[in-house]
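FORM 12-B: Structure-to-Sequence Request
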């Protein structure tokens, strides 16, 4: 991935609110290590007798922290649906790198976005799945130190786009960017791992039973 780019209507049916609801209600997927929320106070809960992982969010608690967090995301989700798995596989084949999927959502527009202007240490392809998000991308950072959520950029953005359902954006590493939710929104980010080791690539085989 060399430069930022934007493509309208690139993948119109990657993930819907309904499909996300199905994922969120599978409690074993919703582990504290996978769910990334930004809340003022941690949550505690009682686990039922059959619970095999005490660190997985009950659905009622999860819905509360999603609302309180504003923007939140879920990591290690590249096999959460067949379509996301296939999209990740295509990226891995094209770029010869490991790819994950992070599902981002925002249900509460009143809460300030926690990231601000920042850059990532990995290349990313981001697909807008529901709602609308404004993305601004600036020129590459020459001093590739740790990302900062307090970056101040005065230059004109290379890209300034309102992403709608199906749109996609490619953001190479070290390019500062800012995502602003124009509406409640759902998107999937596919970060790349440049440490190429094909022996550790995700098994993309999809089990199907009729």
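FORM 12-B RESPONSE
SEQUENCE OUT:
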């Amino acid at each position: 991935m060399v430069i930022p780019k934007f493509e309208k209507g690139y993948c119109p049916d990657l993930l819907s609110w309904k499909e996300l609801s199905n994922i969120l209600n599978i409690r074993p997927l919703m582990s504290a290590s996978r769910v990334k929320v930004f809340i003022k106070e941690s949550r505690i809960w009682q686990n039922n007798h059959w619970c095999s992982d005490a660190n997985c969010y009950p659905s009622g608690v999860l819905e509360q922290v999603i609302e309180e967090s504003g923007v939140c995301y879920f990591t290690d989700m590249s096999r959460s649906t067949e379509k996301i798995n296939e999209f990740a596989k295509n990226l891995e084949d094209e770029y010869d790198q490991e790819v994950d999927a992070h599902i981002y959502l925002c249900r509460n527009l009143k809460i300030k976005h926690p990231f601000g202007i920042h850059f990532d240490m990995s290349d990313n392809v981001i697909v807008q799945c529901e709602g609308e998000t404004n993305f601004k991308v600036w020129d590459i950072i020459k001093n590739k130190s740790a990302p900062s959520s307090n970056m101040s950029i005065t230059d004109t953005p290379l890209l300034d786009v309102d992403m709608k359902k199906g749109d996609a954006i490619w953001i190479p590493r070290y390019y500062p960017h800012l995502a602003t939710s124009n509406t409640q929104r759902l998107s999937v980010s596919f970060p790349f791992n440049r440490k190429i080791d094909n022996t550790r690539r995700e098994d993309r085989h999809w089990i199907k039973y009729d």
